[in-house]
Specification:
The chain is of the alpha/beta class. About 35% of the residues lie in helices and about 15% in strands. The chain is globular. The protein binds S-adenosyl-L-homocysteine. The site of S-adenosyl-L-homocysteine has 20 residues, from strand 2 and helix 8.
């Protein structure tokens, strides 16, 4: 637990997530996932292979992601997302495995699909919505969902600031994720309007949150939420911040496009802003 004191309900999750494999040769996605407590089926592994090939193919046409080597894609993009699964299950507002209706997850600023698409591969029982502001990336996400036969996945070309005010989306998700998109105060403003009360947001971050975390704690109650967990995931490079929506979010939020990042709620000084994700913001 990196920052126990300010949390109302400090929870350490490293014990349930399991220990990571020792550094060294890449054991392959299957083995690495298993070492993080996630068993992937051969069908899922096959989809990850096809996803990796698609990423590499599209990357030759336009800049989808800076990560291009096959092993790096598996290690830094796929495994990073797969490692969120135990936390997703643990913090979900209800038992995901015994759900009476299809749980809905929204991935904000999905880019080339992270972490939403790997989550969709691993959890076909979730309805996954990928929200992405850049049209070309949405075209990729649409193509990937078709190529990988992911019937549970749809991509929406929109900014989260707009979606958060649409009837079909506001207050309608159980789970939210966002990786390498914005600082914690902005992420809270973008995600909380989309969640229903009790819903949970997972924000994988880099290790150094000295400024961002206190700012996130100031911001959380302003949009009807609380930070409920903070821990380092297996691999030691990603800190996972978990927020819960505790009450209705004011209709004022999210503010219009760009404002959540430029004028973060809770008053993060501009010099300390960060949109870094895991791995020091590389993506
Ligand atoms: N989550 C991905 C991509 C990170 S790059 C990953 O981890 O690899 C950030 C992405 O978020 C970009 O593709 C950008 O277009 C998108 N984005 C930024 N702000 C957004 C917003 N307000 N609404 C929707 N998408 C946004």
């Amino acid at each position: 637990m990196a920052a126990t004191e300010p949390f109302a309900t400090p929870i350490s999750i490293s014990s349930v997530i399991g220990v990571s494999a020792p550094p060294g040769a890449w054991p392959g996605l299957s083995e690495a996932a298993r070492a993080s407590g996630v068993a992937l089926t051969s069908e899922q592994l096959d989809r990850f292979d096809r996803y990796r090939d698609l990423l590499r193919h599209w990357n030759t046409r336009f800049n989808l992601t800076a990560v291009v080597e096959p092993e790096a894609i598996e290690r830094r993009l796929f495994l990073d997302a797969v490692r969120l699964l135990p936390a997703l299950k643990r913090f979900a507002p209800f038992d995901l495995d015994g759900a009476s209706r299809t749980p809905r997850l929204v991935d904000i600023g999905s880019g080339a699909g992270f972490p939403g698409l790997p989550i969709a591969i691993c959890r076909p029982d979730l309805a996954v919505t990928l929200v992405e502001a850049t049209a070309k990336k949405v075209a990729f996400l649409d193509a990937a969902a078709v190529e990988l036969d992911l019937e549970n996945t749809r991509a929406i070309h929109a900014r989260a600031e707009e979606l958060g005010h649409e009837l079909a989306h506001r207050g309608s998700y159980d789970l939210a994720t966002a990786r390498a998109v914005a600082s914690l105060p902005a992420l809270l403003e973008l995600s909380m309007p989309l969640l229903r009360e009790g819903g949970i947001a997972l924000f994988p971050k880099g290790l150094d949150l000295a400024t961002e975390l206190p700012a996130g704690q100031r911001a959380a109650p302003l949009v009807g939420s609380a930070l409920i967990a903070d821990d380092v995931l297996p691999g030691g490079e990603t800190r996972l911040i978990v927020a819960r929506k505790t009450s209705a979010t004011s209709r004022r939020f999210p503010r219009r496009a760009g404002i959540p990042t430029r004028q973060p709620i809770g008053g993060l000084p501009s010099s300390a802003r960060s949109d870094s994700g895991p791995g020091g913001g590389r993506r």
